[in-house]
Amino acid sequence: MQKKKWLFYSLFFIFFLLLTNTFVMYWSDTYSVAHPHRNKFYTEPNTRVLKTAYILENKTKYDSFIFGSSRIGAISPYRITDGIYYNMSYSEGIPHEHLLNIKLFLNNNIKIKNLWIGLDDFSYQVSFEKHQIQGLTKLHPQATGTSLLSFYKDYFFRFPQGEDRRHIKHKMQNSSTFATLNIAQDYNLSLLSKANENAKDFNTTQHLNKAEFNKPTYYSGNTLEETLQDIHEIKSLCKSHNIQCKFFINPVHQTTYKFLDLNLLNNFKDNLEKITDYYDFAYLNAISDNNFYWHETSHYRSIVGDMIIDTLMQQEKTKTPFGIYHPHRPL
Amino acid sequence: MPRVLAWFITFNFINIAWVFFRAREWEDAVKVLSGMVGSSSFMNSYAYEMYLLEDRLSTKNIFTTIQGDNYTLKLLLLAFILVLAFKPSQEYLRTFKFSFTNFIFFSFITTIAILHLTKMSEFLYFNF
Prior knowledge:
heterodimer; A: 331 residues; alpha/beta; six-stranded mixed beta sheet; 6 strands; 8% strand; B: 128 residues
């Protein structure tokens, strides 16, 4: 083969391979960012993108939002009566992401009446930057000001990884690995919702003695300062837009609690008090100690979600059977 | 001098000497060098806690400090095979032929390299 001809054919073939790969990645769309209205999900979709896109398409459908990690998926938005709530839970959601989404909603003239912000023991440990390079946790491009080209390039113009290869295989075989997730058309139900829980019996010895309950949910890192700054900004937005804002720290399973850096957790709680009032569910109690209330050592069940709703809706804030109310103590 | 000993000396000389070019301050260089020989470089507190918890040492936990996982050891082994069993790249360039086999190989390798310019990692539940 001649040198020039060889190079020309090579470049042409490379272009063809790149195009084929991009097409396959788009067709498969592991995280469903380009196919939000799928009937069947083969793996967990990027709910950060899907939920935000849904709200931007339906600006007047909801007037209240619950923000938080996947843990708040156990809180039913249909049980809260002082507004029409939408559950914005997404995997490992952290305050900076909630802040960017709230700003996006407000900038798009979405009227917000109530905000519930669920915080976690990892809210001050997980970095936003890490989430932005993960397919499942990348925010909606409008929330970060990313161009659409750059956003879709990250998803489709790349070499397929393990998760992508598994997704392609399942899509070709039409065998869903995510069939149990009853995501309604508005994505307002999560895997942890009561509707998805019903089939399971949690009061069996098999569930209560699961080996999984001995394994803590472990996080490392420290983003305390940035997180407090984000919470402060959310609080300021609530004030300036006349939004009723409630903060709470999610319950923690005893195995995870015993593994936590308690100095860091208490430091977070002390500083949170200086910014806002909040409800604390992250302490050892009858719920944290009983596996009946848990899926594993990270996610509490919808029965606990209902208790959280009862506490947050109670008029007499200091007399709650579950959760401790901390009033705002400004400096 | 035995070949393996020569490799060992050269490898470590480069590793140690380059730290001083990269470090801003003398203290930084000392910190990096002590990290390179100390336990913190190999097994951090997370790996240690997981070891105590799971009662076993998994490569996934050991290599968290260098953002490694279960594949790290295998890839290191593959790299060793590539280095030791094949000719240096300069030698391949000298004898390169514009053949059909090379056309296929070059196209696939270049495509894979271009696609790897986009970084997107998988979500790791609970940091495990």
